[in-house]
Each structure stands twice: as C-alpha cells, then as structure tokens.
Amino acid sequence: MTKIRVATDWLAGCSGCHMSLLDMDEKLVELMKRIEITSSPITDLKTPHQVDVAIVEGAVANSANVKVLKELREQAKTLIALGDCACFGGLPTLRNPLDATEVLRRGYVETTSTEDGHIPTDSELARLLDDVLPINQIVKVDVYIPGCPPSAKAIYYALSELLEGRVPVLTGDNLRFD
What we know:
Radius of gyration: 17 Å
Structural class: alpha/beta
CATH class of the domain at 4-93 and 131-163: Alpha Beta
Mean pLDDT: 85
CATH superfamily of the domain at 4-93 and 131-163: NADH:ubiquinone oxidoreductase-like, 20kDa subunit
Order of helices and strands: EHHEEEHEHHEEH
Distance between the termini: 38 Å
Number of strands: 7
Shape: elongated
Low-confidence stretches: none
Largest sheet: 5 strands, parallel
C-alpha cells in the first residue's frame, strides 16, 4: 500500500493545533499505517518535498512565514488550514492595530531583552508584516478546519476523508467553536 505523504508546520500562533493532532492517540497510530509524515515541527523530519497533504496552523506574521507557506503550497497537492489562526487570523491579528515598528520597540526597547534596548537589524531576521494575515490571503487553501484548537475528531475525520480520496465536508458534529 502506498502511503500518503503529509507535511505539517506552524506559523505565528501557539502550536495548540498540533497538540490536537497528537490528541488523536490511538487513531493517530491507526492513521500512521496509511500516512508518512515527511516533515513537522514536532519531529526531526524537515523535508516537505512533494507531499500529498500539507497541514498548516497559525497566521502569517512575518516574511519567514510567507516563505514557508509558499514553499508548502508548491509542494502539496492539498493544503489544510488548521485552527482559527490559519483560517481567519485568530489571536495573532490582535497586533494589527499596532504599527509593526511599535511592536518591535515595545518588545525590544521597553522590555528587558538580549538586544540591550535596541531593535535587532540583522538582515537574516524575518521582517514583520504590517498586518498578520490568515493563510488564504497568501496561498490557496483546499480544506479549512477551524477551532481554537480544532477537535482531534475533526482532524481525524478530514484526514480519513482525504485518505479515501474524498474532499472532507466538515459539519457541526465535527466542528468546535470556543
């Protein structure tokens, strides 16, 4: 049996959606018979080349998030937006009313930091976007699984449907809004 190749990643957010993925417990073990996780922030696997499914949690807050997201979209046949942050921006968008420079000033100048009161200017650092965005404002999303975090039941259902070659249609039974 050919396994479905899956990559996961998280952008700006709390990583709680990946915890919901792990909450599938025995069902995750069952799915692992049919999927191969090629890359994930919760493993040491970091090669998301040519995957069937990419699962992305979090919102897009900086230039590094944009790069990761675009690379995942290019490599994946199906892209899943996992959690409220990925679906509509969620909590990370609370910084949107603030100017990005103001956010950096508050984080580095007004607090104790390793930068000794200076905003870092290293060109290797990701540049904050003016606004935090949901992932669909950067790339095409094929499946949305909302929730903060989404239920393990919803994640399992969506993956199971994809394994059967069907597009998951999430109903109220599988969704969680809290």
